[in-house]
Structure formats: structure tokens, C-alpha cells
């Protein structure tokens, strides 16, 4: 089971990371959405590009950020 | 003649006309019996009637397939018919369904398209039906057999080569062939493929007759291409590997197969891809060459084109399946070594273009000049093994399609040699920042490429052992070429958060990868290799030239808005990595970090700001604090206003506050570590306890008393910490007073793990603060202080600590505040759970306990472990007993050995008797018919002759006896590895020198008789040597001939097995049992130092104890006065140090 919980932690962290990145870069993302080469098919690519940095955080770092985020929300 | 010509000229047109008519009017009748069918299908030159018969048959077969009417009756009619027309004789030339075959052949001759088509249709249907029925299969096989006969092959070929507009003829023929190939598990597949001159006639063309060429225009009906593809795929499926190889060597077939793949219906594309993968790529018996020829760049590009597959008439999910399948297919082809396209490569070591040249290069590997020159040569291109993949990679567009990007990075991972090659060959695409999807796509691709880990040993173990890979290639793997200093600086510009965010992440990735690469340069044997350290230096230099200066990173960090927590965290991490990995660049910038971490602290403690992303902020804070740890100018203890209205406070105290607050989810290990380092460096706390007791006490206080009360403690603590840090000398003097009061010796001071300057400062400052504090504040203070001292006391109490505490008690008593007794407060162990710092401390504690628990090995145990009794009691009865025994019994029962042992007797007469008896025994053996008698005779005679001069004077040397007894065992067993050595020793000389150990030199210094028997020989030798050491005379031989030195040297072999090592220790123990043995060993052979070195090196606690005990024994049994003088008291010191450990 630890593998599962690890995966779910990674998934939740990736989601949080994406949300954070989208929020912080919202202004520039708007410009990209209006760029000539932006198509509907580009969305998954854009999401992948934003989210890929989540791998740079170790499991313990991910855990710490997630816990803090839950505490402060709850 | 003229007439005939005119007929021929319009012949084709006439056929076409006629065929149109017959094609349009197919007639047929219902069939009720097999005989009726036989009549209908009887050969007839009238093509209309022939068609009528075939059409009727087709109706019957259609009914069977569709299940209309009574299927079993219809099947019965078919069975009856097949039985009726079965050829009378069986053999290779028997023709099944002879009438139909004849009709077909006739029609082919007269070019009667309708019958040519109908015959193929009917045969295909028959094969289809019989393949489902076990009892009919034999007819099917018969039909297949008939098909591969010459006449039918010609008909097939004629059908297949029909005009490409006549799909109604070609398609059924291809269906027929497919049915024939797949019948009964492919029983005839090989034969059909073998007859490819006919069966594959016009296949290349037929594979390219798509829907457009299909005259039917009926979308429900499969095109010629579809049928041709299915036939070809069936061949692949049902052939064995050899057959497939043969098929694939057909020129261009695969090219025809994939030519129109983009316009095929989805189901067919899926079928093609599945079959190619399963039956060609995954077939390990098909050689790489063949696969490689089939899947060239052109083929791969056609499959790549399926990524943009569209088909208006199919559902979107089907189209997506095609795209996905094509992606999986290419991923498989390009990354699986077994698929034949990916060649094994040598990672970051480029392909050696010329073998001889490379050998020469290897010879000159030490020449640094050569390496530098080599690096520059890769500016024009990196030679690779996977040139097809390199060519294919250049066609991909990773910036515009995620799948292309995935494929390319997967290829890079499978063949890292492609990375440097790719970027060098494709330099036209720049990374100039632009807010477009293309830039994002390229950035994402570059990031994924950088995430690919460096291959172990940089991809080639052999060349790794020779030297480092070229710096340029390694650098391109760490930081791809498009990322140059100018572009990265532009990306980091404050104009766009997005480009700066992406560039920051990439730089982090690059630095982390660089540190891995450097580590690979510095590990193991490479640590001392100048070639590697030079390469590491070159790599770092080249890397630093490619990345922005520290000031750019700082500027970028400063420009990020404080609410962008994630971005700031990443930027701070990048700053930290600069400090950690390339400090030469980081320190050049003179970056003062304190204002930044103060502002992060502020935002963490600011009630009004959004705290949802404090996790990131805490990480940023940790990074900044770690940077502060690296900055020499950081002022940890100068007070500043961190939060307005709360008074000034030092950053150190502010961080402590943060650490001890209870609602922190993050463990903040890094922060704790840096603070503890700072505290130890400034001598606030001792290195043994670090900050742990202090943090424990703080956390518990926060739990026990309200935050308002705690607010009164903080300024006091801040004051004590600052005073301590700014004037440590003053407190060191005070500390000295506490210690000297105690009259403790130096040893006890060193033991005092808990004592520190902070406690002294607290005791000193307490009276001043008490004057200005109210009762509430005093109780909070007493609470904290009692907790802190209890935590320290629990760690390890000391008298000095008690003394300081009693001073504090006095101060509190003056204000009538009661303080809990020292050590009375309970400190739960898990109070600051999970921290690495704590764990480390706890481990230390446990280690100590373990050390205390360990019992030292005493004399008795040592004796038990190492002592071997000197010798068995003398058995004089053997002098008489042996006469009665046969030679074999003498050898087997050990009587010879017992007799030999008597030579060591103290009594001269027994020795003399023994000597006489040995000679008699030798003679007896020599006269016997015993097989190895000569060796035994020789051994005993040599022993007797060597002993004769000694017998009168005293026991003969133990070495003679021990050698003879152990040699007996070897002589009994000709397979023993020492057998040849002992024999050659025995034939060398008739007498052994008493000053030497027989054979010892041959074993210890000679070559082993067999390569893998060295340790077996050593084991025998050590047992023999132990027996050869019994008397002071033996000891003197060991001493004079330096055998001890050789044995100890043998024991220094780190690979020696434990049992051999024990044998050596036994010999040492034996020597300590002999008069002056220990003294000789210590003074002449440095035994104590040797044992001490072995003790330190062994690492196993039991063995350590064994060595210790042996050292003590050697000391106890030696002439201590002499050893002391000899060592100038060094031995006592050595033993004293050892006991302390």
C-alpha cells in the first residue's frame, strides 16, 4: 500500500503545483492562449509543461507542503 | 493473318464488354443435394453455364456462412459434394474440386473474368467454411494442396495480375490466398509463400490499389489493398521465423505495405501495426539486419504520419486509437533493443570512428593535450551508432506535439548518445523567449530531456575505466545546447514570470545533474586520478560559462512578487544550489540574504496574509537560511524589527520561535540543522547536545503556558543568546569557575556533554530580568528554565550543571518563586518527533548504551576461541603394535603418525626406539605391494635421516614431525592440491635442515599448483605451522627465519577468509604460550601495532573484542619491563587508548 499512498500524494501534489503555477503565471498564460499557435490540442501539452516541475520536489517536501496546505485550509 | 490481327486488336475490348454483361447478370439456382451440385459444377466450356453452376454453389455457401435456412442440411450437402468429388487416388498430384479448378484454368486462358472471379470467390468461401469444421479440414487441406500445383498457380497468378480496375477478380483471389495461408494453423503457409512467383504476383501493385481504384465504390466492401494487406499479414502471422525472414527479404514489400497506411481504415491500421510488432519486431529469431532494413527512416516517418491520422467516416475514438497505437509502436521500435532499430551504444562516450585510432588514443590516454584536442572535434558533429534514430529524431517536432516530445525523450533515454548529437545537428531552432505555445513546447521538451538521468558509468564501463567522457558531450547532456547564457538571461528577465519560472526550473535541474556528474568524477578510484579531477574542473568551468552570473539570479529572485510563493521557492532553491555546487560563482556576487529571509519570516508570521501556501514559503525560508549559513557576513544575533509593534529581535531567535510553534506541519530539518550549526559555532551550546534540549523545552513550554506568557520569556532568551554570542569569552571564564569549583579532572569535563555557555548566561542574566518582571512572567520563566535544565540533565547530568541550577534556584527563591528540582520534569522522548537532528542524537545515545552493555572478552573466552592443545599424549604402545598391521592399515589407522609423534618424546630411549621403528616401517612399506609405497618410504626415510643427528640431544624439531604427519594425509590423496609440491620436495634432498620449516617456502612464496587452490594450500600450511610451533627452539626458528613476519603479512590480506584469519590468531596465541614468545612478537615483529590495526579495520564488534583480548594477553605474557623500555612507554599508551574506546 505505501506505493499507492505515494502515488496519490504525488498526484495531489502535482495538482496543487499546477494550481499554484497557473495562478502565479496567469497573466502570461493568457497571452499564450491568445498566441497564433495555440490550438485546442495544445491544452494537454501546456498542462504537462506547467506540471512537469512537480517532480523536482522530494516526497518529504511534497508531504510537508500538502500537510501545511490542508492545515491552513481546514 | 490480317483477320486474326483485327480480332486480337479488339479482343481486350470485346472481353471487357462481355465481362460487363456476364458480371451484371449472375444466375443461380437452389441446390438440394450434393449430386445436383456435382452436375451443376461439371466442367463446361460454356462460360455462362459455368458461371451459373458457380453462382449456385456460392448461394449455398453464403447460406451456410450467414446461417440462413437449415445450416446443418446445407453443410450436409457441401459434405456430400466434397465426398463425391474427392479424387480417387491420394498423392501430391491429386486435384481436389477438379471441375472448379479446371473451369478456373479454362476461364483464365480465355480471359473470362466472371468465372475467374467466381471460382476464387467459391474456393475462398469453401476454405472459410471447412476451417471451422474438424472433419472437413482434410478437404480444405486437399484444396490447398491443389492450389500449389502448377495449373492452379498459373490461374492464381493470372487473377492477381488482372487489370487494376478489376478488383472483383483480384480481391477474391487475395481472400482465397489468405484463407489458404491461415487454414489449419498455417499448414500450407510456407508452401504458398514459396510459390511467391505466382502467389505474390503483382502484390506490390495490389497493395497500393486503394479505395480510389476500387470500381465498386462500396464502402462496405474491402478494397484490393485491404485484402492484399490482410493476405500479407496472414503470411507473417502463420509463417515460422525462417519463413518471415525470407518474406521480409522481398524487396520493398514493407514499403508498399506502409505507403498508403495513412488512408487505411482504422481497423486495418491497427492490424498492420499489431502484426508488425508481434510478428517481426518482437520475434527474436529474426536478425537485427533484416529488421533494420525493413524499418528505415522512410517507414518510420510513415508511421509517424499516423500521429495526425484523420478519417471522416470513422468515430473519433477509433481515430484516437490509431494515433495512440502508432505512438506505442514507435516508442517500441525506437526504445527496445530487441526491436532491431535501437543499436547498443556507449552513452556519453561517442562512437569510435576508427578502431585502430581509438586504440592509439587509449594508449595515449594520459596525455591531457590529446583530450582537449578531442573535445573540439565534436563541434562538427558527434558520431553515433544509432544513425537511423538520429536521422529520424531530426524529423520530429517536439516543440509542437507532446507525443513527438515524449517519443524523442524516450529515444534519448534509450540511447543517451543521441542527446548531444541531436542538439548539435539541430541548432537552427533557438530558445529565444516568446510567449507562444511553441516556446512552451520546446521548454517542456528541454526540461524532460534534462530530467533523463546520466547513465551509470556514463554509458560504457570499459571506457569509463579508462577515462572520463568528453567534457563537451557531458555538458550538452547536462545543459542542452539551446540553453546558452544569453538566452537564459533573457528568459530570466522580469518582463515575464512565465519564462523566468521555466528557466529557473531548468537551471535547478542542470545544477542538480551537474552535482551528480561531479560525484561520478570523484567517487572510488577516480578520487585520486588526475585525469578525472582535471575533467571535473573542466566540466565545472565550461558549465559556469554557459549559465548566468549569480547577480542575474539574484535580480530575478528579487523581481518576483512576494505572493508568488512557488516561483520564489524555486528561485531561492536555485540560489542555494549556486552556493552549494558552484560556490566560486555564488560568492562572487556578494549577496546579502538577511533582508530576504526576514521578509519571508514576516509574511509567515503576518496574520493578515494568505497562509495556504506556507508550505512553499517555509521551504523558501529554509533555502534562504541555508544560504545564510554559507554567507560569512550573516549577522544572526543583531536585533532588528521583524514585525512592527513586537519589538526588535534577532533573526536567530525569530527562527527559533518559528521552529517551536506547535502548528508547524513541516519538519523543517534544514532549518534546524543550520540553526544548530550556528549555535554550536558560536559556542552557545555544546556540539554533543546541539539545540535539541533547548527546542524540547521550548515546545513543551508552548504547550503548557499561554502564548502571552511565553512572549515574556522570549525577550529574555533573545538577550541571553545575543550576550552569549557577542561576548563568549566572558561566559567562558564564568564557566571555568563552575568547573574548577568542582575540582573535577579533565576527563570528567570531557564527559560533560550537557554543559554549555547558554546555561551560564541564563544564570547570570536571571537576577537582572527578575527585577522588572511580574509574577506571571516569573512563573513562565521558571517553567521554561526548569524544563530546559531537566532536558539537559536527562541527556547527561553533571555536577557543574547542578551547581548552575542551584544558583538559579537561589535567584528564584529571592522572589519566592518555586522552581522544580533538577531532572524532576518529565521530558517525553518523542517531543520533537521525526526530526533528523533528533534521530541522530538518539542514535548517538543508543550507541553509547550499546557500548556499555558490551562485555569485554576475558581470558577464558580468549583461550576457548584460540587455544589448541599442544599435543596428544604419547602412545608408546604403537612401537609394538604396528608390526602386526598390514601396510594399508598402517596408513589408514594413523599408526604412522603416532609413531612419528614419539620422536618428540622427552625420553631419549623412546625417541631412539621410534627412530629405529620408523626405519623398519619404511623398509616394510617399501617391500609391500602398496601403490604409493615409494612416497611413504621416502618420507619416512628422510624424516629418519634428518632426525638421526638430533635424537640423542633432545626432542627433534616440531617442524619435522608436523610436516611429516600432515604430508602423510596429502600422500594418501593424490588429488590433493599439494600432492605435486610434496613429491617434488621429497625428491629434492635426502635430509631436511633443522633450521628450516620443510616446504613452507614453496607454499608461501611459490606459485600455487593450481590457480584456484591458493587458499586451500594456505589453510593446510597454517595448520601445519601451528603444529610446528611448540618449543622455544621452534620459536627461535620462527624468529630467525622471520616466519612470524610472513605470517602477519599474510594476515594483513583484507580478503582473507575468517577461518584462515582465526588460524593465524591461533598461531599468535600459541606463540604467547611459549616462553618469551610474546616479547619476541612484540619487540621483533610489532605484534601490538599489527593487532591494533586489525582491530580498527575489522568492524565486527566480536572480532574487535577478540583483538583487544589478544593484545592484553600479549602484554600480560611479555617481559613488560623490557617492552616498556623498548617502546618508551608507547605500548601502555596504546593499550590505555584502546581501553577508552
From TrEMBL, chain A:
This is Ribosome assembly protein 3. InterPro entries: Ribosome_Assembly_3, Rsa3_C. Residues 13-58 form the Ribosome-assembly protein 3 C-terminal domain. PANTHER family: RIBOSOME ASSEMBLY PROTEIN 3 (PTHR28127). Required for efficient biogenesis of the 60S ribosomal subunit. Its main location: nucleus. Pfam families: Rsa3 (PF14615). Transmembrane segments: none annotated. One of its GO terms (biological process) is ribosomal large subunit assembly. The lineage of its organism: Eukaryota, Fungi, Dikarya, Ascomycota, Pezizomycotina.
Automatic annotation (TrEMBL), chain B:
Pfam families: HEAT_URB1 (PF26140), NopRA1 (PF16201), Npa1 (PF11707). GO terms for cellular component: nucleolus. Residues 98-442 form the URB1 N-terminal domain. Residues 631-819 form the URB1 central HEAT repeat domain. Residues 836-849 have a biased composition (Acidic residues). GO terms for biological process: maturation of 5.8S rRNA from tricistronic rRNA transcript (SSU-rRNA, 5.8S rRNA, LSU-rRNA); maturation of LSU-rRNA from tricistronic rRNA transcript (SSU-rRNA, 5.8S rRNA, LSU-rRNA). Residues 898-1090 form the URB1 C-terminal domain. InterPro entries: ARM-type_fold, HEAT_URB1, URB1, URB1_C, URB1_N. Residues 828-855 are annotated as: Disordered. This is Ribosome biogenesis protein Urb1. It comes from Trichoderma asperellum (strain ATCC 204424 / CBS 433.97 / NBRC 101777). The lineage of its organism: Eukaryota, Fungi, Dikarya, Ascomycota, Pezizomycotina.
